[in-house]
Amino acid sequence: MYLGILSSVAAFVGGGVFTHILTVSGQRTQWVLDSKKQECRELLKALSVTHIALMHWYADIEMTAIGPNPKILPSAVSYNDANTELGRTFGSLLFTAKEVRDREIQKRWNTIQDDFRKNNDREKLQSEFSRLSDTIVGIASTDLSWCGVVLGGMKR
Predict the structure, then answer these.
(1) Residue 47 placed within a domain
(2) pTM (whole model) above 0.85
(3) Is residue 146 predicted with pLDDT exceeding 50?
């Protein structure tokens, strides 16, 4: 009789512990997924601000006659500030750093900017920026198998 009661209590406690472990690991997984999506949002925002600042700067250059004493355009300062913030954003990635590095997001952005500075092709700039943004959105929507976490909190 006592054995039956003890086994019932043990099963109850064991089930509670198992449920707790699954809940905590599920919460951790959701936290990592949410953090990954937030990093991608921050990266997209920083890239968008830099992209717009770059276009404004070049529009101002086209409209301003640069003489022997060129003035510093406010749009150039805005672009520099945006580019600095973008660099900080790249440097602060935790959950997406490997994927961003593997997909060469920063290198691709630098190439896009350099190409625009040389050719001033706004259509190509917009097209390449859209492709880069799509890549980042893809990173945000991937699972966590790259870091050994899958849904349910079980590691591979």
Answers:
(1) yes
(2) no
(3) no
Q: Is 86 exposed, middle or buried (0-12, 13-18, 19+ CB in 10 A)?
A: buried
Amino acid symbol at 20: H
| Nearest CA among 36, 28, 38, 15 for reference residue 151 | 28
Please report whether residue 7 resides in a domain.
yes
Amino acid, single-letter form, for residue 72: I
Domain encompassing residue 42: 2-147
Residue 47, pLDDT score: 94
Domain presence at residue 34? yes
- How is 58-105 classified by DSSP, letter by letter? HHHHHHS---SSPPPPHHHHHHHHHHHHHHHHHHT-SSSHHHHHHTTH
Q: Domain count for the chain, please give it.
A: 1
Assigned domain for 108 exists: yes
pLDDT score of 115 more than 80: yes
Q: What is the mean pLDDT of the chain?
A: 80
